[in-house]
Amino acid sequence: MAKKQKKQSGTGGTPATVALTAAGADYTVHAYEHDPAHPSYGEEAAQAMGVSPDRVFKTLVAEVDGELTVAVVPVAGTLNLKALATAVSGKRAVMADPAAAERTTGYVRGGISPLGQRKKLRTVLDDSASAHATICVSAGRRGLEVELAPGDLARLTGAVLAPIGHE
Prior knowledge:
The strands form 3 sheets. This protein has a 5-stranded mixed β-sheet with strand order 6-3-4-7-10. A 4-stranded antiparallel β-sheet has the order 1-2-9-8. The longest helix has 9 residues, at 41-49. It is an alpha+beta fold. The protein is built from 5 helices and 11 strands; from the N terminus they run βαβαβββαβαβββαββ. Helices cover 24% and strands 31% of the residues.
């Protein structure tokens, strides 16, 4: 069962929640018991929180023309690499090496958040996010999600909205 917490003070937390607090953003933290055997981090989060998978977004790191780029798409779908490249005026996108993604963001796979990354990467948020008052993204570790308005996520990450996900 997901444990819901309201915004906490700026002490402690993950880099993502610290960044949200420092920005004065409204958000809610959802914690749940992560099962290492579960085949999908995002689907596990949606089930544990009792939230529709179209409101839970996964953070993927891709390389567009050699530059690491963050893609935030619903867990119910997949990333369209060609659309991602187009969204950032690139020619070719491929999934990033997982070790490079972890090293650059400061997070581990399954816990990569679009917020509070070690190095600020250009970010693209799937435009389906704007259909929801709030969405959930990783809060920076497995078993921890943060719920916030898509506009706040876009503003805080400098994300562009584009149709980069598909079912």
